[in-house]
């Protein structure tokens, strides 16, 4: 192989390297531009694009269902598995604000009960063991006799006592301090009863004002 042939081979390889370098430079520049465009887009742009794509597909699906004479919502539900439907329903119920504030004392007690039961982690093995030992006494009725042999474990009693102590410690912070009125009627026996009466008066005072006035005047029927 002569020197001129070697030189042509090296020059050919050099041209190939230059071409590859230019292609890489153009590709990097294009990717840099795309990355800059994505950085300037809103943070939820991809989610919005997926939402728009889903709406377009849903519109086409509904048009096809109308042409075929089918209910679109029912047909869509048939395509969703039970696990996915349960997750979607749980997510929807979680987003829904079920706590609408104070309505009645029964509702407040029920919400408190649900909150406390969510904190309980039952021991299923111990539960099954008690069912086998007690039999029908596991689910007593009003006429059931013979529950004296059943005793709660010490850790359960300790947990109940701890919850009661925690509730008692939190209770003073529920109500803000109000100014003392020396001319107000004393219709309470302690501070807790006073707050309870004030709560009743805020919610039901306008309905019982006339009855209270009649009792004070002695004209109640």
What does this entry show, briefly?
Its main location: nucleus. The chain is an all-alpha fold.
Strand content: under 5%
User: How many strand units?
Assistant: 0
Q: Please compute the radius of gyration using only Cα atoms.
A: 37 Å
Q: Sketch the major β-sheet.
A: none
The dominant shape is: elongated
Number of helices: 8
The proportion of residues forming helix, as a percent range, comes to: 55-70%
Parts with pLDDT < 50 across at least 5 consecutive residues: none
Q: For the residues shown, what is the average pLDDT?
A: 80
Order of helices and strands: HHHHHHHH
Distance, first to last CA: 130 Å
* Classification by helices and strands: mainly alpha
Function: Involved in pre-mRNA splicing.
GO cellular component, one term: Prp19 complex
Subunit structure: May be part of a spliceosome complex.
InterPro entries: mRNA_splic_SYF2 (IPR013260)
Polypeptide structure, described:
The chain is mainly alpha-helical. Among the domains are: 1-40; 44-87; 188-220, no CATH class. Helix content is 69%, strand content 0%. It has eight helices and no strands. The chain has helices at residues 3-40, 45-68, 72-78, 82-95, 105-118, 124-134, 154-170, 191-217. The longest helix has 38 residues, at 3-40. The protein is elongated and about 130 Å long. It starts with a helix and ends with a helix.
Walk me through the topology.
Layout: H1 3-40, H2 45-68, H3 72-78, H4 82-95, H5 105-118, H6 124-134, H7 154-170, H8 191-217
Primary descriptors:
221 residues, 69% helix, single chain, mainly alpha, 0% strand
């Amino acid at each position: 192989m002569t020197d001129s042939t070697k030189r042509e081979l090296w020059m050919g390889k050099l041209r190939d390297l230059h071409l590859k370098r230019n292609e890489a430079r153009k590709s990097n520049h294009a990717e840099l531009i795309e990355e800059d465009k994505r950085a300037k887009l809103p943070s939820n742009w991809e989610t919005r694009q997926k939402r728009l794509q889903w709406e377009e597909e849903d519109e086409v699906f509904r048009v096809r269902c109308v042409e075929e004479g089918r209910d679109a919502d029912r047909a869509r539900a048939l395509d969703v598995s039970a696990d996915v439907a349960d997750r979607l329903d749980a997510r929807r119920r979680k987003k829904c604000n079920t706590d609408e504030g104070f309505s009645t004392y029964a509702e407040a007690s029920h919400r408190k009960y649900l909150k406390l039961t969510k904190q309980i982690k039952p021991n299923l093995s111990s539960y099954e063991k008690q069912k086998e030992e007690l039999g029908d006494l596991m689910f007593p009725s009003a006429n059931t006799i013979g529950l004296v042999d059943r005793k709660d474990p010490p850790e359960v009693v300790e947990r109940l006592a701890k919850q009661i102590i925690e509730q008692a410690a939190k209770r003073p912070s529920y109500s803000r301090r109000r100014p003392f009125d020396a001319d107000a009627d004393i219709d309470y026996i302690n501070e807790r009863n006073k707050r309870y009466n004030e709560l009743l008066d805020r919610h039901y005072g306008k309905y019982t004002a006339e009855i209270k006035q009649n009792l004070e005047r002695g004209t109640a029927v």
